[in-house]
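Predict fold of GntR family transcriptional regulator; 121 aa.
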Amino acid sequence: MLKFDPNIPVYLQIMEFLKKKIASGNLQPGEKLSSVREMAQMFGVNPNTIQRVLQELERENLIFTERGIGNFVTKDERVIAKMREEMAAKMIEDFIKSMNDIGFSDKEIIRLLEKKIKKER
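Predicted 3D structure, encoded as tokens:
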């Protein structure tokens, strides 16, 4: 179960969780999602919250609904690739802002990233 941040709407946190699952490939294109009831139990939320999540994901073309069958991850890999790029851009932006806030210059950030990446390999 997700540990929810009380400062962020729950439906947005569940959306982010599902987007990460899609972006990472843990949910494959065309894969059927759990039912509303199953997800509500899994996340410990009201089914209406899950309905809102699914509506928003459908509005973003990340999932589609087959009436009477369920909800599925989009089969359009361009949509998934675009979402991944947007998520990465946001993460990088947040990281750079946080590093700038504690006094690191852009050059220092790049140097630290290179050092960390080399150390990890």
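The longest helix spans residues 77-101.
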